[in-house]
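Project outcomes to date are best conveyed with an example. Our students and postdoctoral researchers have been running inverse folding experiments weekly, and each run begins with a structure described purely in tokens. The record below, which covers 495 residues, was selected by the lab manager from last quarter's runs and is presented without edits.
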């Protein structure tokens, strides 16, 4: 090989390595990554050489250490993760568990939700290592690698909740696969809802109601947030075979494939509609863990909103929910793209930073790293964003993080709205159908410029209402950081 060729190869290698080092932010999905950096920067959490941490669950301990549960079945305690320039110290507390997707602390013990059971893990002799593993509940079956189990935090009564994935998309071959369970403080296991497919997380929404994440697949044309209603049917009927072991619950009628969920809801009273649909690809493709912002403004203008990760697209999204006529519904919004691996879970730190962890193991992801822990830090700059959307009897109220200027804010043409729904069927995924384009009849901007009321010619029950607000400008003539939002209408409030 010639000297010149060697030089060229070495230069290419150096270029590749430099790109790899800097490539913390990859996968420009929305085309907003560079602007997002001005407001929320990605901070890499370093790990020791050879250390593999595929974080699937987080729990903040009373002493502000972070407990991290991994897909490989380890639990680590981490110090120093919240420093401006993190130099974390990792201490392995436990090993030998299996696909940890739930951690909750209570009375000196960690309650670990993993594939086959809920386990109480303690350090009995005080040497810093787990030495007692007690089964709290193994009330469900396990026999397939895809049978993940996701666990909640404790509720105010000391209950935990577990969301159980199916054996695969079309079968429930093990006990209560495709169900949600309530585990009481005394270890009693109570099935509470059927019809789950492949959950990605479980816990309260911003109002304290129990929700879970559902993945796209059979009977679910897109990923969604769903209210986990006691006695409810979440949409996938393959798990009805276990009702014989839940005599306190009534088996619903089976839904008809090929209709619409708003239609089937009239026939199957137990059926719970999607509260927030995440349009496939444009938003979530495989939504994972979520957490509510309770930081008191440390993370910016989105207090009391839901933050969610997505595995495939290596992104973070926002969601807001509200209850209309007794039914939950709400909106989702882009937030931050370009993370370096597939996101499995998210957690706020004591200083109000958002921690994200995950892996690329199992399915393809946009991020380039096999696993990572990363942190999103608010820079203190206020982004111009759609803060939230709420439905009204004849349209929507849209709230912003910065005042909108009057010219565009009062112009109905600045608010583009279209709608679609999905076929509710047993096939895998499904196209967007029944599209409409309602007329925006009027727009009225509040005096402070921070909200606008728009009136539409029609609101479509059972449809996702897609907003494109690219024509809006704030008083400094900035365009929105993210111009799109998606509101799922299940019910329309009365006038």
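After processing, the design step wrote out the following sequence:
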């Amino acid at each position: 090989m010639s000297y010149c060729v060697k030089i060229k190869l070495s230069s290419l290698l150096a270029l590749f390595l430099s790109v790899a080092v800097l490539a913390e932010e990859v996968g420009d999905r929305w085309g907003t990554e560079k602007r997002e950096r001005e407001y929320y920067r990605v901070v890499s959490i370093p790990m020791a050489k050879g250390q593999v941490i595929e974080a699937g669950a987080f729990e903040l301990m009373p002493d502000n250490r972070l407990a991290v549960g991994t897909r490989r079945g380890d639990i680590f305690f981490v110090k120093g993760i919240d420093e401006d320039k993190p130099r974390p110290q990792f201490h392995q507390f436990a090993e030998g568990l299996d696909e940890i997707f739930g951690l909750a602390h209570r009375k000196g013990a960690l309650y670990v939700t993993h594939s086959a059971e809920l386990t109480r893990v303690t350090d009995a002799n005080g040497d810093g290592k787990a030495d007692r593993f007690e089964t709290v509940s193994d009330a469900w079956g396990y026999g397939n690698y895809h049978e993940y189990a996701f666990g909640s935090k404790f509720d105010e009564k000391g209950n935990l909740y577990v969301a159980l994935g199916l054996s695969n998309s079309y079968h429930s071959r093990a006990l209560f696969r495709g169900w949600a369970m309530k585990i009481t403080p005394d270890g009693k296991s109570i099935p509470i809802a059927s019809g789950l497919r492949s959950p990605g997380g479980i816990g309260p929404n911003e109002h304290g109601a129990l929700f879970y994440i559902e993945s796209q697949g059979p009977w679910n044309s897109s990923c969604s947030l769903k209210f986990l209603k006691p006695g409810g049917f979440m949409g996938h009927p393959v798990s009805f075979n276990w009702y014989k072991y839940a005599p306190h619950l009534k088996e619903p009628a089976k839904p008809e494939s090929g209709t619409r969920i708003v239609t089937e809801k009239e026939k199957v009273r137990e059926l719970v509609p999607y509260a927030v649909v995440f349009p496939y690809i444009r938003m979530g493709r495989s939504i994972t863990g979520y957490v509510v912002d309770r930081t008191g403004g440390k993370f910016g203008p989105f207090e009391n909103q839901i933050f969610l990760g997505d595995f495939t697209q290596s992104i973070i999204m926002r969601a807001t929910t509200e209850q209309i006529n007794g039914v939950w519904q709400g909106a989702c919004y882009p937030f931050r793209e370009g993370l370096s691996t597939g996101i499995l879970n998210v957690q706020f730190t004591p200083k109000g930073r958002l921690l994200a962890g995950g892996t690329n193991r199992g399915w393809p992801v946009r991020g380039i790293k096999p696993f990572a822990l990363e942190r999103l830090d608010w820079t203190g700059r206020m982004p111009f964003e759609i803060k939230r959307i709420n439905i009204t009897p004849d349209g929507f109220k849209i709230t912003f993080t910065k005042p909108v200027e009057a010219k565009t804010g009062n112009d109905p043409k600045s608010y583009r709205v279209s709608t679609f729904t999905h076929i509710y069927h047993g096939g895998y995924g499904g196209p967007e159908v029944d599209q409409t384009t309602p007329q925006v009849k009027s727009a009225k901007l509040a005096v402070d410029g921070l909200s606008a009321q728009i009136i539409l010619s029609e609101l479509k029950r059972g449809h996702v209402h897609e907003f494109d607000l690219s024509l809006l400008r704030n008083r400094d003539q900035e365009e929105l950081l993210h111009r799109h939002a998606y509101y799922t209408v299940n019910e329309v409030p009365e006038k």
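The chain has two domains: 26-378, 386-489. Confidence is low (pLDDT under 50) at residues 1-27. The training component of this project remains on track.
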